[in-house]
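Why show two proteins at once? Because comparison is the fastest way to build intuition. When a single record is shown, students tend to memorize it. When two are placed side by side, the eye starts asking what differs. So, the first record is below.
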Amino acid sequence: MTTVHDPSVAALADDLSVWPASTAEPHPGELSVGGVPLAELADRFGTPVYVLDEAEVRDRCRTYLHAFPDTEVLYAAKAFLCRAMVHWIEEEGLGLDVCSAGELELAVTTGFPPERMVLHGNAKSPRDLETALRLGVGRIVIDSPSEIARLAAAVGPGGHQKVMVRVVPGVSAGAHEKIRTGTDDQKFGLSIADGHAQHAIARILDQPQLELTGLHCHLGSQITTVKPYLAAVRRVVGLMARLHEQHGLVLPELDLGGGHGIAYRPGEPALDLTELSRRVRAELHDACAAAGLPVPRLTIEPGRAIAGPAGIALYHVLAVKRTGTRTFVAVDGGMSDNPRPALYGVRYAPRLIGRRTTIDRTPVTVVGRHCEAGDTLATDVELPADVRPGDLLAVPVAGAYHLSMASTYNLVGRPPITAVRDGHARLLVRRESLDDIRSRDVGL
């Protein structure tokens, strides 16, 4: 291996640390991903456009399978789903975690085995449950007491359905209060502390058509330390021990959810998967040994950590406005294709691409085109001082919760998704057109 001594090369490597591994700079100011120049993608597909590195997605799937042996790894579809993504996940040997009939049907009609899928959600509709039962989903995660009777009735006296119970371990974790789901004061799951989880489990045991296979918990999103997961293991195993004492119940599965944090900007922390696997499995083994229980099979549900770093969003600059001490760089997208900065205050690291410049960088705020003061994509980031209309900006780590949360605000169609691999690009999801939007408007 050759050691890099050129400071400019080392700086570039650090600057690209949150980009897909295939990212290269074939010429100064130009970037390629998957062997395809990003400027070429912008010309071919227009902007805004999402770019997904297929090899990066597949590599991250394999990393999880390697880091978590003897563990069921389910890709969390809510992060991003399309038919190609379903195909990649299935080929790499992961299962699928879905939370709606739409996600479920898209996966099954693409060829994904329903028995390798788990359906969850805090308020499943009758259609969600009917679809899950009709298609034969592997497990349904019960999230509220009312679901027990509804699901048992839908299954019928001669039917059978494997279920889990989502419990709340009382562990606070996650980068923002809006994405913390392991504490009692939020809408998901059944609390261990107040006894609601135990009561729901007792009711499930009275339903012969429902087979309780294990417990499920999900602490939140963008968690970058291992400690909260260890606390959750201890508390959930404690509940398992009480269930064994009260009902003679031995549960074979424990689903610890996902929420694995990634870096959105160079230098930010990310969850260490090797450490997470080693310490969680050790904690689970020790806790079960102390309780006199067999070790359940572990399940995890990464979503963002697989899709997020594989994606890039491309925008063209429409306007540059200097007001007082601030410089605003407005692009042809915004909160309709990435609402996360407005929702959670997430910060990104956009980069000028497509042309070489030696001008010093200056702090700017990258804003969107929508009629909201909060339509901001990146606050106080450094771009070359000569940034101008027509320039191309690339935003890394855009593969998760962008298209899946996109809207048609101001009747702006949602961007397309393209995939790159081995020097080739293809369209996965086409751009939403004005005709698409008009076709739904049937009231005149």
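Second record. Ask yourself what differs from the first in the token line.
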Amino acid sequence: MPLYLSRFSYTPETWARLTGHPEDRAEAARSYIESVGGKLHGFWYAFGTHDGYNLWEAPDNVSMAAVALAISGGGALSSFETTVLLTVDETLDALRRAGQVRYRPPGAER
């Protein structure tokens, strides 16, 4: 199954609610991805541009998109970005295929 890396930031209101009532949001994240047949591999909080990171496994892009849309639409986050991760083998295959693409830069002669 494909892996996905999500970066998220909470709204100030969400941080205030969590400060008043601390809870393990990794368990919530686990239930969301499991509802589409996936798995949560990790949940971390961080300092910096994003408040946290998740590493997910989902059956396909549509399943992951469904989870991302549900979370994003919930109103607790100020940002939520997800990146599809490729294995080394997938990247090597893409590199081989890229050599077969006849790319022409903009403005280059035909």
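One difference worth noting in the second protein: The chain has a mean pLDDT of 96.
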